[in-house]
Amino acid sequence: MRSAARYLDPDFLQWFGLFGAALTWVVQLVVGFGITVARCGAANEVLGVDVKPWEITLMGVGIALALLAEAAALSVLWETRNVDYGGPAPEGRRHFFALAASIGNLLFLVIIVLSGTGAIVHEPCMQS
Amino acid sequence: MSALPHSGEARTPAAVARVEQARLARPNGWWGMAIFVATEATLFGTIIGTYFYLRFNNLHWPPPGVPEPKVTLPLVLTGLLVLSSIPVQLAVNAASRGLLTRARVALLLALVVQAGYLGMQIHLFVHDVHEFPPSGSAYSSIYFTMLGAHHLHVFVGVLLSAWILLRTATGLTGYRMNGLRATAFYWHFVNVLALCVLGTQLSPLA
Predict the structure, then answer these.
(1) Chain B interface, mutation test: which of A14, A15, A37, most B Cβ atoms within 10 Å?
(2) CA trace torsion A59, A61, A66, A72 (10° rounding)
(3) Is pTM beyond 0.80 here?
(4) What's the mean per-residue pLDDT of chain B?
C-alpha cells in the first residue's frame, strides 16, 4: 500500500478511495436496470439481450473496483496514521475521509455483491 | 517582497499570476460551477435514459418514415467542438501566468469554433424539424429534446466565452480569472456531453 501511495497522485487516491465504490455501485445499478429494460422491452425481438452475462460482468468489474477503492482508502489511512481524524486540514481531513471511506467501501462492496447476485438468480421480466 | 493579495484583490495580470501560482485550493466559483455541472449531468442522464427506455420498447427504431441519423457531418462538427477545449484550456493556462493577450487570442479562437458549430447545428436542427416533426413519434420527440437541450448548453457556453472575452478587454483581475476557470470547466463539460449525445444519436446504426 505504501508503494501504491508513492507512485499514485495522493489527491486521486483520496477521492477514488472516497467515491470509487459508491460510483461503481451506481453504474452497476443504472446499467443493470437498462439491460433489464432492454431484455423485457419489445425491442428484444431484434436486440436479443441476455441479462445474466451482463450482470455477471457488471458484478465482477464492480467487485474489482470496490476492492481497489478500499485499497486506495487504506493506503491514505496508512499514510496519515500519525494524524488524528479531528486534526487540522489538510492531513486531519484526509485521515477522516480515509477512515470514512474504508468503512463505506466495505458496505458498497456488500451492496454490489448482493444486488448482482439478486439480478443473476431471479428470472427477468416477471414479478417475484 | 509584498504580501500576497487575496484573489479578489488582484487587479493586474502580474498580481493574478502571483495569486494563481500560490493557490492551494480551487476558487469558490469553480466549486459553484462544479455543483451546477452536476445538476446538468443529472438532466442529461435522464434525457439519455429516456431515449434508451423508448428505444428498448419500440421494435423499429427509428420508426418507419423517419430517416436513419446522419453520420459524417455530426461526427465532424462534434470533433471540432471537442477540439475547442484545447484553446479554452490554453486561455486558462496563459491567464494564470499573466499572459493576457495570449489568453484572449485563445479564447477568441475557441469562440469562433463554438459559434460556427452552433450555427451549423441550428441549420441541421431546423432541417430535421421539417423532415420529421417532434410530434410525429416517440423517436422524434426525444431526438429533438436531447439535441435541443445540448444546443442550448452550447449557446450558454458561447455567451459565457463572449462575456469573459469582453470582460478581459479592460484587463485581467482575480475575479475574471475565476470566471475564466469556471467557464472553461463548463465548456469541457459541454464537450463531454456532446460525445454522449452523439453516441446516443448514432446508436441506431450500431
Answers:
(1) A37
(2) 170
(3) yes
(4) 92
What pLDDT shows up at residue B75? 94
Q: Which of residues 26-65 of B touch A (CB under 8 A)?
A: 49, 52-53, 55-59, 61
Within 13 Å and on the Cβ side, how many CA atoms surround A68?
A: 16
Say if the Cβ atoms of A34 and B55 lie within 8 Å: no
Scored b (16 or more CB within 10 A) or e, A14-45 reads bbbbbbbbbebbeebbeebebbbbbbbbebbe
Residue whose C-alpha is closest to residue B29's, from B40, B37, B21, B18:
B37
The DSSP code for B80 is H
How does pLDDT run across B77-119, given as a tens digit for each residue?
999 999 999 999 999 999 999 999 999 999 999 999 999 999 9
Residue A6 clears pLDDT 70, i.e. is over it: no
Select from B23, B56, B13, B27 the least CA-distant residue to B203.
B56
The ipTM estimated for the assembled molecules is: 0.72
Q: Which residues of A touch B200 (CB under 8 A)?
A: none
> What is the spatial distance between Cα B127 and Cα B204, in angstroms, rounded to a whole number?
20
- What is the number of alpha carbons within 13 Å of residue B113 lying toward its C-beta? 21
